[in-house]
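Sample intake sheet
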Amino acid sequence: MDISRDGIKQAVIEAGSSDEEFFHFPVNENGLYLQQDPDEYADFVHYMATQARPSKFSLDIGVASGGQTKFLRDYYPIEKTIVLDIGEHEAFRHWARIKPSVKTKFVLELIMDSHSKEARKALLPYQGQIDFTFIDGDHSYKGLMQDIELAKEIVKKGCIFVLHDTGAVPDCVRVFNELQKDPDFELSANFDSRFGISVWKYLAINGPKTGWRKKLSKLRG
């Protein structure tokens, strides 16, 4: 496999987009229906493949077609994965076809609202195990912050957070700007030639606002 940046870009184009006019590369009928900019996404995947530590356990919030979930794992090793998606995106119909080709062990698949009590309850048994999370679900300010807080409650210290559209969607830009001032997060890399893919290290200085970790920190304090 060619893991050069240009090789990855070519693989992105061959995998196909979900909308040629918007994403500027063709749709592949049997492809991944990616919703990425080829250059920006190639830069991100190359970074993950060459500079990031492999992941033991990932939480993906918002997968749409699942093409991104599959493509990233072709280059960046992720042993186990939890998928959380509401299942309402028009490209979600491709997930059942794409899922068997994803190089990971699926531990849990939650097709529900990530902001629901049911989603949080289902994730609680995995607290402290997640070392990578890709968040690309609700793009409203409140929704994205809720997804980040949910992930903070589940992941371990040092977890890699990846957020999509942090350079293009106003509410996501707002979150990006706030995270730069948040002691819980350290910006590791930012790929922002069109949509924005930001990579963060979770420092867990303050930790989640709710949940058992917050209660434990209060007891220790």
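Comment: The chain is about 35% helix and 25% strand. The mean pLDDT is 94.
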